Amino acid sequence: MEIRIMKNILDRNQNKADEVRKLLEEKKVNMINIISSPGAGKTTLLERTCEAMGGKIRIGIIEGDVTTDRDAQRLKKYNIPIVVINTEGGCHLDSHSISKVIEMFDLDNLDLLFVENVGNLICPSAFDLGESFKLAVVSTAEGDDKPAKYPRLFSEAGAVILNKTDLLPYTNFNIEAFKADLAAINPRVPLFKISATRGDGLQGWFDWLKQQLNSFRNS
Amino acid sequence: MEIRIMKNILDRNQNKADEVRKLLEEKKVNMINIISSPGAGKTTLLERTCEAMGGKIRIGIIEGDVTTDRDAQRLKKYNIPIVVINTEGGCHLDSHSISKVIEMFDLDNLDLLFVENVGNLICPSAFDLGESFKLAVVSTAEGDDKPAKYPRLFSEAGAVILNKTDLLPYTNFNIEAFKADLAAINPRVPLFKISATRGDGLQGWFDWLKQQLNSFRNS
Q1: pLDDT at residue A19 above 90?
Q2: Banded model confidence at residue B176, pLDDT cuts 50, 70, 90
Q3: Cβ contact A139–B141 (<8 Å)
Q4: Distance from A119 to chain B by nearest Cα, in Å?
Q5: Do residues B123 and A123 lie in contact, with contact meaning Cβ atoms separated by under 8 Å?
Q6: Is B120's CB within 8 Å of A121's CB?
Q7: Cβ of B66 and A164 within 8 Å?
Q8: Which whole-number Å values give the CA distances from A181 to A149, A160, B143, in the listed order?
Q9: Which of B91, B141, B197 lies closest to A167 in CB terms?
Q10: Residue A219: its pLDDT value, please?
Q11: Beta bridge partners of A112
């Protein structure tokens, strides 16, 4: 009974996600669904990305949070369109809420729409939002065992960011073990090692992202 | 419809949790439900606690994980009873799975049963397992805004552990902001600032835990 209900929920989510994807492809808007544990650095990554690319690319942001608009407050200084979705306790965004809020953006004047999902390494992976790809963000402080312990996100991700490399000297994080676990699940996924607070490694992420936008626009 | 289903799931979970709690009270077994984000340090905290208290107190552990038995592998050196529950993608433990596995422990010869819940700051908070109290663990690397952004766990917790204080010099974590947010939600909750890897601050946690066990045993 519960399994059937869950299947219905996921089926209805998929139908709406397909609609969202179709609309965004028509409008040539690339949507990236960012998923991580709480505090892995999604918002700081968005801050750095808006600073570096906001002048050249028209960016919008959907901020998913259980409660509060604290992340949106951090981002409003970039003067880009931001819409907050508070899930009121819910553990992930779904395509129905995305479908409602994308109407609030001027899609004809947007290149890139970031969705900062709720901080959760499990549930958001199960819900397609209509994104171009999922971006998995993981912090070195979380330990090197996350791909093996939370495989679904890492297997589906179109790119992985390992953040907080500035903390590597102070943790027992084994980068070779992390890479081996990731390669076993998703052998060809691009991995960017960065420190969003210090700025290390960000250029590789920006360059790759620009390539993705170009190939999406010309597809 | 979905709301009614969710209510049914939670009601059935509560009924079974009440049964578990009654059984554990009869057997004088204190059960602690440990909840945190992925990689906040639950397993390392258990390692230190087993090392310090395992000789004096009879400890058992239920390890909840989406997949793998990696945490249990880390704990088996303490030669204490451990049972792994793999949720196979599920984002939290529930009282039905706990009810089944506590039969595998010799409850007449146990003082303390730790449940290491699935790494998730949201969903586990909604499911009573029959525990004596919930222990919230949060790492300094996650940022000081977690109590405000994920209030349910912090409002229900019987104790809070702030782990990875050794990383404080390398982060922008503001401990006064963290305490203020926590106090607004749960004014009297005990807070232990520790570094589980380095050993800092652990004695306060051990002493408090011993007090809890004594008062539970004599209640």
Answers
A1: yes
A2: very high
A3: yes
A4: 8
A5: yes
A6: yes
A7: no
A8: 9, 13, 26
A9: B141
A10: 83
A11: A30, A59
What DSSP element (H or E) covers A180? helix A175-185
| Per-residue confidence (pLDDT) for residue A32, from 0 to 100 | 98
Q: Is the pLDDT of residue B215 over 80?
A: yes
Residue B77 Cα, gap to closest chain A Cα (Å): 19
CB atoms within 10 A of CB B201: 16
- A29 touches B: beta carbon within 8 Å: no
The residue written with tokens 């499990």 in the block is: A122
> Is B63 at the interface with chain A, CB within 8 A?
no
What tokens does A135 get?
Answer: 């971006």
Sequence-ordered list of residues with C-beta below 8 angstroms from that of B43, at least 6 positions apart, any chain = B71, B74, B75, B116
Number of helices followed by number of strands (H, E) in chain A: 8, 7
Contact A87, A93 (CB under 8 A): yes
Tokens 């918002």 found at: A43
Which value does ipTM take for this structure? 0.95
Nearest CB among A38, A149, A152 relative to B150 is that of A38
For residue A63, the cross-strand partners are: A84, A116
Q: For residues B182-201, give the mean pLDDT.
A: 98
Q: Which of A134, A147, A216 is nearest to A187 (CA)?
A: A147
% of chain A surpassing 70 pLDDT: 99
Q: Is B43 helix (H, G, I), strand (E, B) or coil?
A: helix
Most A CBs within 10 A among B149, B155, B197, hence the mutation to make, goes to: B149
Inter-chain residue contact B197 with A172, CB threshold 8 Å: yes
- Verify whether the Cβ–Cβ distance B68 to A148 is below 8 Å: yes
Round the CA-based radius of gyration of chain A to a whole number and report it. 17
What is the residue whose two structure tokens read 């700051």?
B121
> A168 and chain B: CB distance < 8 Å anywhere?
no
| Residues forming beta bridges with residue A35, ordered by sequence position | A136
Residue of A nearest to B86 (CA): A149
The reply to whether the predicted model has a pTM over 0.95 is yes
Over the stretch A168-194, which tens digit does the pLDDT of each residue have? 999 999 999 999 999 999 999 999 999
d(CA A125, CA A154): 9
